[in-house]
Amino acid sequence: GDSVTQMEGPVTLSEEAFLTINCTYTATGYPSLFWYVQYPGEGLQLLLKATKADDKGSNKGFEATYRKETTSFHLEKGSVQVSDSAVYFCALSGTGSSNTGKLIFGQGTTLQVKP
Amino acid sequence: NAGVMQNPRHLVRRRGQEARLRCSPMKGHSHVYWYRQLPEEGLKFMVYLQKENIIDESGMPKERFSAEFPKEGPSILRIQQVVRGDSAAYFCASSRGQGANTGELFFGEGSRLTVL
Fold it and tell me: Residue B97: pLDDT above 80?
């Protein structure tokens, strides 16, 4: 079945460092891809999305490119801030005839940014 | 706040008791999804409901778990005869249509169930 694999955390960076969180997926069809962020004590929020190959999603300085050839959707940010400390989830939309609109999530990657 | 509202935020139950978790979707949303987040794990899909209908329950355990979304009132996730393995955060999300088509799943803050 469809699945998402993220790099294990926690990822600890200094402020203004470059961030990459790897995400790869397995899907039988052509899913849409998403990054969600969960701040401490809160629910998940959509960060960015891409709906087809080579699309680039971007928001708040984060970006990710839908790479069909490598089945990847890595999250990047050029200069992280302490306020970016959170758990980041990569997700895909289910594919195939059984798709009911649910999202399939990776296990999450905790990012901690130190001043 | 017109966001997704979940309650209770924290619930403690003893083994064998029942847990009821409630979710009120965002205004105008008629699609509700329930996810479970076990410690150190990602979110696992449980069930997708529209008003008065269960659309996809492929992630629901076969026993003790049930969900409903009545015509009036919140969606309810019910866990009967809870066991320690049910301890988790349960998240509800809502969307205007089938969420993945737009990516716009709006999540509540979760209900954290602890089974003693």
Answer: no
